[in-house]
Amino acid sequence: MHPLKRSAPSAALLAAAAGVSLLALAGPLQAQQDTRITRPIRMIVPYVPGGGTDTLARIVAPFVSEAFGQTVLVDNRPGASSTLGTQIVAQAVPDGHTIGMIDAAFLINPSLLGKLPYDTLKDFSPIVLVATSPLVLLVHPAVRANSVKELVALARAQPGKLTFGSAGNGTAVHLAGEQLRSVAAIDLQHVPYKGAGQSIGEVLGGQITMVFTTPSGGRQHAASGRLRALGITSPKRFSGMPDVPTFGESGFAAVDAATINGLVGPARLPRDYVQRVNEAVMRGLQRRETQERLQELGFDVAGGTPAQFGSWIATETAKWAKVVKESGAKPE
Question: Coil, helix or strand for 290?
């Protein structure tokens, strides 16, 4: 799973995006009104059950169900770095019976994988950005650094000696390290693993220097003292780890990779349908129990209009294309 982006779009970006038409991303929506949903809705998740994207889909599905009085079935379609399930959404009939949950891979894959079986900016109707989660930088306690600035100084004193692990090439935890390497002008060695658990295990064992991970995957180790948290990629301090300074506070605000999840459908979804799903999810996200559950999982509630989400997708896809190109990241 590809984790991305800072914890939520900035207020300035959302304000600017409010005036940006969704048409710029996905082409014209059908003018049809009062879309009839006559059978269960499929919500495609391009990963196996149990991961963060799947969990969020199962939290959000009842909200969509309430809007139409129809069952929403979470349909897991893993494979090909999430492109298999995403392609199913792109090629679905735009009648509202198929939508999908995307994550950061949706933004990264166009530049990482090259030719895709769909056009990220043309073949989808953005519906709503559901949630985001920042990434936290963890180091082994033996590392002589108690802050991001001290880590940067250490890296400059020992060029090429410090290593950072990731869940694989092109994941956002990898690209977060590439951001840090670029922004701080330091020489770090990337060590890709088969998944987040393996990379965290290696830093716990002292085999590598550091790792970026989600708060849900790292705060237990930080709280126990087995690892030291130096910085977090959110624009403000994360409520689940309030003692960890942001990269902005440390002078490296451009290090902003994070996980994201949102709902999209095939291009040309009826406008009224997109609006109804957006409003239903927004209502669900405002519930106290939903917010408490997402916080427990290490997520921040996002939200916003379809137009804002569409503008954000376009901006972030271009942003990560630049990072992928500069880092030389290649698919595994």
Answer: helix
Structural domain boundaries enclosing 265: 11-133+258-327
Q: Is residue 48 part of a domain?
A: yes
Per 3-state DSSP, the chain is made up of helix, strand and coil in percentages (nearest 5) of: 40, 20, 40
Task: Determine whether 177 is exposed, middle or buried from the number of CB atoms within 10 Å of its CB (0-12, 13-18, 19+).
Answer: buried
What pLDDT, in 10s, does the model give residues 301-320?
A: 999 999 999 999 999 999 99
| Per-residue pLDDT reduced to its tens digit, 243-263 | 999 999 999 999 999 989 999
pTM over 0.70: yes
Q: Is residue 1 part of a domain?
A: no
46's CB contacts (< 8 A; 6+ apart) are 53, 77, 78, 79, 82, 83, 84, 85, 86, 100, 101, 102, 105
Is residue 122 located within the same domain as residue 170?
no
Residues 6+ apart with CB under 8 A from 45: 53, 54, 57, 74, 75, 76, 77, 85, 100, 101
